Amino acid sequence: MPKTPERRPSYDELASLVVRQMATIEAQRETIAKLEATVERLTARVAELERRQNRNSGNSSLPPSCGSASG
Fold first, then answer.
1. Which residues neighbour 63 within 8 Å (Cβ) at sequence distance 6 or greater?
2. Domain hosting residue 38, numbered range
3. Does residue 44 fall inside a structural domain?
4. Do the Cβ atoms of 67 and 56 come closer than 8 Å?
5. What secondary structure does DSSP assign to 28-66, as a single string?
6. Is residue 66 part of a domain?
7. Is residue 24 assigned to a domain?
8. Is residue 17 part of a domain?
9. Over the stretch 10-49, which tens digit does the pLDDT of each residue have?
10. What's the rounded Cα separation, in Å, for the pair 36 and 41?
11. Mean pLDDT of 44-71
């Protein structure tokens, strides 16, 4: 079976492809920026929660009734 040569895209097809790719790249940039902001916010939140978890009445201003129970 003879192999048929592939048709090369026209200039207009290539130009259209470039425009679509540029739009995709811009949308991806926006998504990346939003995700980076989310990661930054969540990283700060995790650090705050870890800081709170490590607090007890012996190392904070919490009353003794809020501290961890030790025998």
1. 57
2. 11-51
3. yes
4. yes
5. HHHHHHHHHHHHHHHHHHHHHHHHHHT--TTTSS--GGG
6. no
7. yes
8. yes
9. 999 999 999 999 999 999 999 999 999 999 999 999 999 9
10. 9
11. 76
